[in-house]
Input
Amino acid sequence: MNKLLKTLFIILVTCSSALAQPGRPPMERIHAAKMAYITDRLHLSVEQSSSFIPLYNEYEREIRNTRQDFFKKYKGIEPDKADDATAHQAIDDNLDYQQAVIEIKRKYNDRFLKVISPQQLADLYKAEREFRQILMQRLKQQRNGGGRFNRGN
Output
């Protein structure tokens, strides 16, 4: 339990400091915090980190490009106002998008396993979900006026 609290504290400090760095673009700061979180969470060795991080960046880039292509196609289209044909096509395209993401994950699983253990790979996907949840909570706090230095006073 004590180790869990320490890890959560490190994560929050890392996320807070990464999000608060004024000179860097927000996405770059978030990515840096995510990489720090994942590296810590997976307990990567220096050797693993040097191979894993570039590979993970490549994986993320493929996922991001696939997502951007999907959303670009439907930019400006409001789902609740679309005709049946457009809605049907969007459903099919969404399934294709999800299938493409699965294929990317399968491709990179083999590549990741050359660098990290199967347990670390399982932890990677869990760490990604946890980081997303932490990030969403942090952004929600900022939106609600609970910024970094506001402690409810």
Notes: The longest helix spans residues 84-112. The chain is about 80% helix and 0% strand. The CA atoms of residues 62 and 104 lie 7 Å apart.
